[in-house]
Write the structure tokens for this entry.
Amino acid sequence: MLFELPDDDTLYAALLDRDPAYDGRAFVGVTSTGIFCRLTCPARNPKRENCRFFDTVATCLEAGFRPCKRCSPMAPAADADPVIRTLLAALEADPARRWTEADIVARGLDPSTVRRSFKRQFSTTFLEMARLSRLRDGFVTLSAGGRVIDAQLDAGFESPSGFRTAFARLLGQSPARFTGRERLKADWIATPLGAMIAVSDRRSLHLLEFVERKALPAELKKIRRESGDDLGIGRFEPTAQVEAELAAFFEGKCDVFETPLTMHGTPFTRAVWDELRRIPTGTTRSYSDLARAIGRPSATRAVARANCANMIALVIPCHRVIGADGSLTGYGGGLWRKQKLIELERRFAGR
């Protein structure tokens, strides 16, 4: 299925609920005003008989509708929120700053509004995002063989315990436990959709996740347990290879990932992940589609759990699975990332 949308009644219900699951994948044109909007637009809901639904901005424009100035449907959802846009620009300008709620208030913003906006779009808060941004500098220092104290200072942490706690929360262990002789190494990869953590040994990639993913510490613990190896900081060749492939992917040059993988899962989950890799770029499948494809048509829920258990994001494209009604459904990296990945892959499909 190539971005098929549900019937108009379902989309109108999503419009009334301001359901973010269709953000970037469905738009409403209002015939009484000549304007098209996101389904999450805060404007007053139009009457059902005045609504026409479209799957792209281009088809809205071709039908003669002009973009709404309130919800900015031609911009990515997060960019359309002035609160998010303001704070992300400030974070980019000063990534080493130790942000607090007082800083948010000083900018004339309400902390609770900021918290809701960031949780809705990124599944994390702005303060947590800022903390991870600072932690990256310490991660890079350790990856280059630097001392823990230098990594702490580079990350802008005044307290050694605060740095150890933040680092352990991300990777599941304190930086003092790294010896440099570990057979698994974790490193930081920057992407246009945010930082990712890659874990590999000398032969294959074991994990690739966005750093905000809540399940990351548990996934790292599972990899250490199942491989029987310790985890260190640094990189082997598979991490360098997948970083180059990610760069080509986000630049729209190549959608092929050839980095060798080690998949930590049961035979059933690995079968689901193998089927995910067979979904052509630019197309989507439902959980029931996947269940039928692996010969287990009654195992839709188990397939959904296997999809959520994927630890190698993008390379194993679990973002290509959507709800049976066409909604984006959940994604560990956040629905906003899922939306952007699907939009990006449309370009590959168009070729």
